[in-house]
Amino acid sequence: MPEHNPAVESAMEGELALLTPKVRRSAERVAALLHPDFHEFGASGRHWSRAAIIASLAATTEPGARPVAVFALRGVQLAPDLVHLTYDTEYDGSRAHRSSLWRRTEGRWLLYFHQATPFSERPT
Description:
By secondary structure, the protein is of the alpha+beta class. It contains 4 helices and 6 strands; from the N terminus they run αααββαββββ. The chain is globular. The two termini are 27 Å apart.
């Protein structure tokens, strides 16, 4: 069952911020939300390092871009310093199931790991 507590709410706030064009365009803002050991398996199948994702987002996010649509955001605190989030996104017709791990580091919640898996709805 989804859990709502300050840790989960902080992780959700950070996750949603990372999906906004304003934050994505700013290498400084993205870096402030990523753990030093961050890595990601993207929807493309590519493995992203912290430095690579910061550079890519800053270089490819257009000033007038619309935010990523988020559905069914849920979170659970797995340990005192660890939160797991899951949700679905849609952007430019592409959909992905997403999973993130947020770690509390020096009193701040930072994104430690992220994975996206593409999906399409099946006809009913």
